[in-house]
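anyone seen this seq b4? input:
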Amino acid sequence: MSKIWKYVFIASLGGFLFGFETAVISGAERIIQELWDLNSFWHGFTVSISLIGTIFGAIGAAKPAQKYGRKRVLQVVAVMYLLSAIGCGLSFNWYMFLFFRLLGGISVGVSSVVGPLYIAEIAPAKVRGRMTGMFQIMIVSGIFIAFLTNYLFANFGDDAWRYMLGIMAIPSLLFLILLNTIPFSPRWLWLTGKKEEAKVVFESLGQSTTELNSLDSQDQKEEPLFQSKYRKPIIYAVLLAVFNQLTGINAILYYAPRIFEMAGFSRELAFLQPIFIGGTNLLFTLIGMSIIDKYGRKKLLLSGAVGMFIFLILAAFGLKSGASDFLLYYIIGFIACFALSQGAVIWVFISEIFPNAVRAQGTSLGSTTHWVMAALVSWVFPIIVENIAGGGFYIFLFYAIMVVVSFFFIMSMPETKGKSLEQIQEELK
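predicted toks r here
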């Protein structure tokens, strides 16, 4: 089991870079807006360009993951992360910056599909939630470190943003080196006809080859995803991804310093508060991962939705009334509830709900939906708060309403805890 955890950890480093890449812009966005004199529309575009890249990455991830294997694709992703970090740090104009942020976003999109996919395919059923959840733990770790380095570099003058973005080159290089030590996914090897290699890998992981043998009793030939027989997993994955972003999580993470400045905090305090947010996110994600296989996916999602609604409403009215003293607590409360529920569950659920024959495509669809919504939410946020009086109140109120709608959707979702991937496939027929 320790060997599996090692491979899970290494594959999850893509999640760390995912989290860092997406959150680091929160410290640089105001500096960049002033540097290149961007209005609210183009500023929102600049912040969300990485998210636009994630859409292309998520859409394009399935075929190479199926053809070349999960491991090879992750190695390419590591190189792309490295180039993005170096390119952003050295950018001498807006267009160069956009290109390398787009490249980083493509890397995030691909890794959000292939990382959880690889982990789900090597993990034993009884701990698959925790193992796949390691990817989410690494995401929030990356977010926390991004907030921390943003704070540390905030007073480095006009070039502070270069250090904030360029530091990602270090973990990118480490990820690339460590990927050479992990095996190919045994399920991918089996489905591509390399059955002896698959058995060797599965046995090295200390698992029975019975699950691999069961693949032969099912129709495993790769086929189109959009068929009526896959209607249920498609609906579950797409809607969960939509509601994940309509909670406002990415807008809050990306614009955290600005939200606190809106509430009257000084610039230094506005950069300090996100560290508490990142720490809370990490702590409660760890708690969520420790209980996901005990209590299941649905219970976490439902309880988290209740908490998120309460704290989003408090934050909305706090911004409206100017009660800034409590805003940090409201947002920390929201982050804690999100991390325990949506944050802990989304990548686990999307990676396990689809049948083996279309898992790469299905995971790609769920991830693509997630990033389309993330890009829209992040692009719209500055437009609303800068151009509508009381925009902060209205946008947080909207997020709260969306959480209520998501609660009723979650009630209809299946529970997947403790079931093999093949068993889930049979039950969704």
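The mean pLDDT is 84. The radius of gyration is 21 Å. kinda curious what u guys think
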